[in-house]
Specification:
This protein has 309 residues and is an alpha+beta fold. The chain contains twelve helices and nine strands. The protein has a three-stranded antiparallel β-sheet, covered by helices on one side. The longest helix has 19 residues. The N and C termini lie far apart (57 Å).
């Protein structure tokens, strides 16, 4: 006789006390679990399981005097560091810092290093000792930011102005580089494109400047673009994005297929763009909204509808 199997179409979320083992330490939490209201079976839910695990991690960190993820993020922002800069200071990778800030448990060695960095004298000393480990872009940023006591934002903006201080010509779309418009364009696309990989951002910026130039004989940002293997990219874009992360406008987060650009800045930055410039950005955003995912492990069309425009 055939047995009727429950389709689990009527599920509810319940709370129950549960003990999870974290690094050999039993941690008891009030977990949230999906359960079928018809047959009573508990259903696997990746999102809930991840939340429960993070709750256990938080309790474990408190029990073992480890910094919480938000404390690590706050420490990095306090010194205007990118994830890669902090990684170099404590001796790990950028991906490791991203995991720590996402809730993973840091090693005791890394935690000790992070606690020491709370003292400004320690972080300045480490910058001096490890300066050779930073790339040219990062060293220039640090030299600008940590020289003297002047405003960090002003120093960073001056750095970009000097970096792109070329005159308006055919290569810049007959416009002098406008750092605020460039930052606004980057923030616009990061707000409107979910999972925006850095490589795609480079192309969106180029299309925006080129389409605007076609209609107005001048570009939006005044950025120069250089030819690379997979198409045009803004000149010295790595330094520019690093400065934007330092200023808290964006965040560069390492993921499986590369760095993703996440929005962090105030949307009021978009006020630096004219109505006609925003219209071009909207057009480019819609035109290249749908991404055909051809990387390993992804199939079909991958897209998320924008909710900012």
């Amino acid at each position: 006789m055939a047995v009727n199997k429950c389709a689990h179409q009527n599920c509810i979320i319940i709370e129950k006390e549960e003990t999870l083992e974290v690094k050999g330490d039993p941690i008891t939490i009030n977990s949230r679990v999906k359960k079928c209201a018809n047959c009573g079976k508990e259903i696997l839910d990746v999102v809930l399981d991840t939340e429960n695990l993070k709750s256990a991690y938080r309790i474990y960190k408190t029990k073992h005097n480890l910094m919480q993820s938000e404390e690590i993020l706050a420490l990095r922002k306090k010194y205007n560091l990118t994830q890669n800069m902090l990684a170099l200071l404590i001796g790990c990778t950028q991906a490791t810092i991203a995991r720590y800030e996402g809730g993973s448990i840091q090693s005791e060695t890394h935690n000790t290093a992070l606690v020491l960095l709370k003292n400004p004298e320690n972080i300045k000393k480490l910058f001096e000792e490890k300066s050779a480990e930073f790339n040219t872009n990062e060293r220039k940023i640090l030299e600008q930011i940590y020289s003297g006591n002047s405003n960090v934002t002003a120093k960073s903006m001056d750095l970009l102005e000097n970096l792109y201080g070329y005159s308006a010509n055919v290569y810049s779309g007959f416009k002098k580089f406008d750092v605020e418009k460039f930052m606004a364009a980057v923030l616009f696309f990061s707000l409107n494109q979910s999972g925006l990989y850095k490589t795609k951002l480079m192309k969106l910026l180029w299309y925006a400047d080129m389409f605007f130039f076609k209609e107005n004989t001048v570009s939006i940002t005044g950025m120069k673009y250089i030819h690379q293997q997979y198409g045009p990219v803004p000149d010295k874009y790595s330094m520019c994005l690093s400065v934007m992360e330092t200023l808290g406008i964006i965040e560069l987060q390492e993921q499986e297929f590369g760095e993703v650009v996440l929005p962090k800045g105030d949307k009021n930055l978009m006020d630096k763009l004219s109505k006609s410039e925003i219209e071009i950005l909207k057009m480019v955003n819609e035109k290249f909204f749908y991404i055909v995912a051809q990387r390993k492990g992804l199939q079909g069309n991958f897209f998320v509808r924008s909710n900012f425009i």
